[in-house]
Amino acid sequence: MQFKALLIDAYRQLSAAKLFWVTVGISALVVVAFGSIGFNPEGISIGFGAYQIDSEQLYEGSPWARGLYIGIFSSFLVKIWLAWIATVLALISTCSIFPEFVHSGSIELTISKPIDRFKLFFSKYLVSLLFVVLQVAIFCFGIFLCVGLRIGEWNPMIFSAIPIVATFFSYLFAVCVLVGILTRSGITALLITGIFWMMLWSVQTSEIVLNRFVTGLQVDIERFDEGIVTATEELIKIQAKSETDFRIPTLEKRIEKFQLEIDEKQESLDKLTPWHTPVEWTLAVLPKNAQTIGLLDRWLSDSDGFDIGAIMNGDMRAFEDEDVKEFDPTTRRARGREANRRIQEDYESRSLWYVVGTSLLFEGFILGLGSWYFRRKDF
Amino acid sequence: MTVIQLQDVEKVYRGKVHALRGVSIEVMDGEIFGLLGPNGAGKSTLVKIIMTVIHATKVSGTLLGKPIGDRVTLESIGYLPEHHRFPYYLTGNQVLHHYGALCKVARKERNTRASSLLTRLGLSGWEHKKVGTYSKGMLQRLGIAQALMNNPKLLVLDEPTDGVDPVGRREIRDLLAELREEGRAVFLNSHLLSELEMVCDRVAIMVKGKVTMQGTIDSLTVDSRRYEITTQGALPNWATELADNVSGNMMTFNGDDPAKVQPVLDRLRAENATIVSVQPVRENLEDLFMRAVDHKDAPGAIR
Question: Cα separation of B214 and B195, whole Å?
Answer without folding.
Answer: 17
